[in-house]
Amino acid sequence: MFRSRTAAVALVTLATFTDIVAYSVAIPVLPDLSRKLGASPTMIGLLFASFGVTLLTVSIPMGAVSDRIGRKGPMVGGLVALALATLLFAFADGLPWLFAARLVQGAADAVTWVVGFALVSDLYGDDERGRVSGIIMMGTSAAVMIGPTFGGWLYELGGIRTPFIAVAVLAIVDVVLFLLLDLPAHHAPTEPVPLGMVLRVPAIAACALVVIGISSTISMLEPVLALHLAELGVNPARLGLMYGAAAVVTTTLNPIAGRYSDRRGSRPTMMLGLVMMGVMVAVLGQSWNYASALVLFVIAAGTGTFVITPSLAFMGEATTGAGIRSFGVSYGLYNLAWGAGLLGGPALGGFLFERIGFRALLVVWAPLLLVARWMLGRVESNRHDTHSDVAAGDLDDRPERAVAREKGAG
């Protein structure tokens, strides 16, 4: 049995890594598989979008469930669902089965991320969460690099089922390891914490708005940057190289951003990151050829790590500071905000790109990040100066913290 906090972080990192590999493996494989089953381009788009349906609907309920019954069971269930989803992809013989697999995959993603970060917040205090979030996000960036290449290579090597079966095996390994993880008994709050109570905490609401802003910015760039580069004569392979270079940079910077936020505070780090990214988004809009777009995009992606990684720590910090301790609901809200940005960013970006063009779009978009920075600056930081109650080597030494404030935070 594994009993240390380090083992718990390693397994959460492996779980999120597996989830992102499963998601990114679908990028080169699913369109071809869908066409073979008779899907139109519109149907393929709906298939990809269906992931977000269960991501949005499952995040908060499963976070609340994990607050009530503990983290281990939901994590194991989410990873089992991920394995089943990938096997459904592998053996699907019709579009309904592909849609079913994609919906299950979205639900599994919600559980893995929400419950995983809630578990981390259970085990680490405010002054350590940035470092730990950086480690987990480093694994995520590595998965972004590996997933499409891994999926495409296995597809060519063994056919359309091979990449999905490989991911399912990895998910099953995750399940076994989590079953061996010995977590302390989880003591649920005396009453369920409603989402409205969580949203009434200004710091939590501000964090959610920032997450929508950064998520929508990243997802907005995915289609419009490709369209802009196509106008410059850049082929998809060179676009893929840009994203690969950005993934290398973010893999390197995520743990740095996490440690920086532990030293300087997660909220100040996010505010700095929002300013840097706002500036770089506007500058990226002025790119005039492939080389300039490559350099500017990689720098912009790097600045994003100083928003995303500390935001994960800040959500836990804001929850603790409000005395709520329902990390499952809070990270469910985080995931919901991220999913809302993923849905809204490309739609709004495509609409504006068609009407005002790439350069004007990014110049108009950049101030939204500065507005998010201003809103975040108006809330008080609830960072604790004390270290985590959890001994570094033994989870069983963790006392349950009492609720620090009355329920009427609003």
Write the layout of secondary structure elements.
Elements: H1 5-36, H2 41-69, H3 72-91, H4 95-123, H5 129-158, H6 162-179, H7 195-199, H8 202-231, H9 236-264, H10 266-284, H11 290-321, H12 327-377
Description:
The structure is a single chain. The chain is about 80% helix and about 0% strand. The chain is mainly α. The chain has two domains: about 1-185, MFS general substrate transporter like domains (Growth Hormone, Chain: A), CATH 1.20.1250; about 190-385, Up-down Bundle (Growth Hormone, Chain: A). Helix 5 runs antiparallel to helix 9. The longest helix has about 50 residues, at about 325-375. Residues about 385-410 have low confidence and may be disordered.
Mean pLDDT: 83
Overall tally of domains = 2
Q: State the CATH class of the largest domain.
A: Mainly Alpha
What is the CATH T-level topology of the largest domain? Growth Hormone, Chain: A
**Tally the helices: what do you get?**
12
The 3D shape can be described as globular
